[in-house]
Write a structure and sequence with these properties.
Layout: H1 10-13, E1 17-21, H2 27-39, E2 46-51, H3 56-66, E3 74-79, E4 99-103, H4 110-124, E5 131-136, H5 138-144, H6 147-164, E6 167-172, H7 179-185, E7 191-196, E8 200-205, H8 244-251, H9 254-265, E9 270-272, H10 273-286, H11 296-313, E10 317-320, E11 325-328, H12 332-346
Parallel strand pairs: 1-6, 1-7, 2-3, 2-5, 3-4, 5-6
Antiparallel strand pairs: 7-8, 9-11, 10-11
Helix pairs in contact: 4-6, 9-10, 9-12, 10-11
Length: about 350
């Protein structure tokens, strides 16, 4: 898609959460933001805009320039960093049917931003009117707080918007971040709406955006071009919203890491518990920085009563305790993460 002023593309129009990638303060970014609102029927909606890196006056001026007469039925501007005086000229201009300026204190934290948006969404929910949310911008948030804290905020906002059927888009300037940082945010959204100077706007939908199912690792698909086991150079991602915390929890336990290291390297996916215990026991003894496991029995108990049931719940494998058998579900995206962690741990 090459139009910056309107979205019009079916995956974007139906998406609940959109990551908008465009240079900050560029014409493309401003037209893309206005186009998103226009395509969502902004004049018959209530809109919330969280601004971190621009003043409320600047965001309202953008709407006035690009939305023509299609102003939101009600607008709320949450000022989370501009330090603009409360008597904003834009807020007092009368251009909007109903406008509220909510200025947060200078000591604001990400949790305060999330709570403020949640409060406003809760108040507007019963109005039986479409709700829209704009966050400007992730780049501003990342200048103030650690990446993990911003990801936590994004995850919470996207989850609440999905539950309340709120159409949201978050701005990010890809030129201000490393490619690694941008790639970490892409999977958190239903759709990525990206401006490429030589091609205009492009839309990339998440692999499971049309399935309408709760995401699990079992639904992860192989990235374009395919991957192969043992190929650490092949770029891979986890195209699953809200999986970031699950990945951190998975790799937090040393024994569970040993288990995952072994599973990703197997040529056969079915095995007995005894075989798995033996392989994990041998791996742990071979890792210099680890404590040597007390016995095979101790490894077997922790696998059977802790780690295997957890991985079963996430859909990474199937553990049948009745006959002590395990079936692993190969997962290229997850395996890429495990390979990276293994290289860090083993050197």
């Amino acid at each position: 898609m090459n139009s910056g002023s309107g979205t019009g593309d079916r995956p974007l129009g139906e998406a609940g959460s959109v990551l908008m990638l465009a240079p900050d303060s560029s014409d493309a970014e401003r037209e893309g933001c206005a186009g998103f609102f226009t395509d969502q029927g902004v004049s018959e909606s209530k809109a919330i805009c969280v601004t971190v890196s621009e003043s409320p006056d600047s965001r309202l001026s953008l709407w006035q320039q690009h939305l023509d007469d299609e102003m939101p039925e009600e607008a709320i501007i949450v000022d989370a960093g501009s330090s603009l005086p409360a008597n904003s000229q834009a807020a007092a201009s009368g251009a909007f049917p109903s406008l509220t300026l909510d200025t947060l204190p200078e000591t604001v934290e990400p949790i305060d931003i999330g709570a403020t948006v949640s409060r406003h969404l809760g108040r507007l929910e019963g109005a039986d009117t479409p709700l829209l949310l704009c966050l400007h911008s992730l780049t501003g948030l990342l200048e103030c707080w650690e990446r993990d804290r911003v990801i936590t905020l994004v995850t919470a906002l996207n989850r609440q918007c999905a539950e309340m059927d709120v159409k949201s888009h978050h701005h990010m300037d890809p030129e201000a971040h490393t490619e690694e940082t941008v790639e970490m945010f892409r999977p958190l959204y239903d759709v990525v709406y990206e401006y490429l100077p030589d091609h205009g706007w492009t839309v990339t939908a998440a692999a499971n955006a049309d399935e309408g199912e709760t995401p699990t690792f079992r639904n992860t698909v192989t990235p374009p071009g395919g991957v192969g086991k043992g190929d650490p150079e092949q770029p891979e991602t986890i195209p699953i919203p809200y999986s970031f915390d699950q990945v951190l929890e998975l790799i937090s336990a040393p024994r569970r890491r040993s288990l995952l290291y072994h599973l990703k390297d197997r040529s056969e996916n079915e095995m007995t518990l005894d075989e798995l215990v033996e392989r994990v026991y041998e791996r742990e003894k071979a890792i210099p920085a680890r404590e040597t496991p007390q016995s095979r029995d101790q490894v077997g108990v922790s696998l059977a009563h802790n780690h295997l049931p957890r991985l079963d719940d996430l859909g990474i494998l199937s553990y049948e305790s009745a006959d002590n058998t395990v079936e692993y579900y190969p997962n290229p995206a997850l395996e890429s993460v495990i390979r990276y962690v293994e290289r860090l741990e083993l050197g």
